[in-house]
Amino acid sequence: MILYTATASPFGRKVKLAAHCLGLIDSITPRLTNTNDPDDEIRTLNPLGKIPALVTDDITLYDSRVILEYLDSLAGGGRLLPASGAARFEVLTRAAKMDGMMEAALLVVYESRFRPEGMQVDSVLATQRGKIIRGLESIGAADYGNGAMPDLGEIGLACLLDYLDFRKQVEWRDHAPQLVSWMADFAAAVPGYEITLPAD
Fold it and tell me: Which distant-in-sequence residues (6+ apart) come within 8 Å of 82 by Cβ?
């Protein structure tokens, strides 16, 4: 399988981290992608030009939510996401919140990166940061207890917090101090954590 991604992408990192947890990382070959390059192959694989995308022998999959469900199914199912019932929808809802905060964090980066200096729209930055802050404040205090097998929501939360540390959109510890010990426990327990940290 070929994973089209970028080393800084929190969404691509979710896939790599999940693959480590599921024991599938050795069957995935990352291919670095530049979504701003009109000639990059990602625009053929995914007409939206977004990463990550996973190419298998049979199908091309995107986005990260679909890829994660696919990897979970390859590993037998029910490991990252409960197969049915209320627990499944609770995990999906938490995962959706993490994705929404990651999208807001990316938009903060894009506003600064793609608009000329002095032309960034402060109201856009404030709106996106507000989403992140409200999301962080809505997360209750809890111990991390899933060891080497986090669920989709937990993978998303760890990738979000590390991305906020990487790009500095907000200081998450100011808004979610209850997550400091959670993050330390996750980092210590989950395989592939260090090797998948975001990088330029």
Answer: 88, 91, 151
